[in-house]
Write a structure and sequence with these properties.
By secondary structure, this protein is an alpha+beta fold. It contains 4 helices and 19 strands.
């Protein structure tokens, strides 16, 4: 091969290699324009993040507690005196009215004693009348007349005592309500410790619950509560009407009592209640997810998107919910707060929003 032929061959090969290198840049093998190197580089450097656009919203600061449902009124029926039950006038599980006779204890002995005292009273009155006449005629001394008066007064007092004892042989309903199971029968001998039955007023129910002592100054009578009871559908409401004026030194809690209507009778005493107590409501709170907050040495901050970059904002916080926290200063409605990739952010980091956080 001659020198000239060799040079031509090398030159042609060099042209082919140059053509293959340059052709992609000239878009010969593609009908589309190649992307700008600077544009592709910018997209690759922007950090994808989630954002939340803060807007005023209504927020409630709540305390969640547990408590117990109690009857509005409840009494264990017992006899004040010992004796044998002669009559039972109520049905188990039935309703009774205030003043209804429920149980009658045998009073035969007391009535016999009353008749004896009434006879003695009639005689004592006659004696007192005769002696008064004699005393007025100055035929007897004042001492004799006083003794007759004292005897009459003593018998009268015994009669009143016996009648009071007879009244106690009748056990009557102290209020309207529903009576439970009875634990005695006619003919049973009862004493003051014998539990006859339980009477409860369930037209309303009480809810006893406790809250931590730090909230005691934020609670007052008249505040509303909402509560749920196992086995009862829906949410019931009530109103606080009493606050224990003492902090339990063991649990550091304060006992509260609320009242709720129970017209349908679905709320039963002893039930476990889950309670929500609203301490305050804010109608225009700015809320952000708790994960958006970055703790600092003496403050807290969030990152907002400004001109496509992450910029820090020092903020002050307020109330918390399960997922959100109130920002009381440092943000304005409409600000876009970054909620993801917080650890990778630095002031001025280019960011690209990918989705809006709820």
């Amino acid at each position: 091969m001659t020198t000239r032929t060799r040079n031509i061959l090398y030159g042609g090969t060099g042209l082919i290699v140059l053509f293959l290198i340059v052709s992609p840049k000239l878009s010969i093998f593609s009908g589309q324009d190649a992307p700008s190197p600077s544009s592709a580089s910018t997209l690759d450097l922007r950090l994808p993040v989630s954002v939340r656009v803060v807007q005023p919203e209504r927020v409630e600061e709540k305390i969640r507690s547990t408590g117990t449902v109690l009857a509005n009124e409840e009494v264990a029926l017992r006899s004040e005196i010992a004796g044998i039950i002669r009559q039972i006038h109520f049905k188990e599980g039935g309703r009774v009215r205030k003043g209804d006779l429920l149980v009658k204890i045998d009073d035969a002995e007391l009535r016999a004693q009353l008749r004896k005292l009434e006879s003695q009273e009639r005689l004592a009155k006659e004696i007192e009348t005769r002696r008064r006449t004699l005393y007025e005629g100055k035929l007897i001394s004042a001492e004799e007349y006083d003794r007759a008066q004292l005897e009459l007064a003593s018998i009268t007092a015994d009669i009143a005592l016996t009648r009071a004892r007879i009244e106690k042989t009748e056990i009557r309903a102290p209020f309207d309500g529903m009576i439970g199971l009875r634990y005695v029968s006619e003919g049973s001998y009862v004493t003051s410790t014998t539990h006859i039955a339980t009477l409860q007023n369930l037209s309303s129910v009480k809810i006893d619950f406790s809250i931590p002592e730090r909230y005691v100054n934020q609670v007052r009578t008249g505040q509303k509560i909402q509560f749920r009871v196992t086995g009862v559908q829906g949410i019931s409401s009530g109103e606080i009407y009493a606050v224990e004026p003492k902090i339990d030194p063991t649990t550091r809690t304060v006992l509260l009592r609320a009242l709720s209507t129970n017209g349908d009778g679905t709320l039963l005493p002893g039930a476990f209640a889950e309670i929500d107590l609203v301490l305050r409501r804010i109608d225009d709170a700015l809320m952000v997810p708790t994960e958006a907050l970055v703790p600092q040495l003496n403050s807290q901050m969030v990152f907002c998107i400004q001109n496509g970059e992450a910029q820090p904002r020092t903020v002050a916080t307020g109330i918390r919910t399960e997922r959100l926290i109130q920002i009381t200063s440092g943000l304005q409605p409409g600000d876009s707060v970054i909620t993801s990739g917080i650890l990778q952010l630095r002031p001025g980091t280019p960011v690209r929003p990918t989705q809006e956080a709820s």
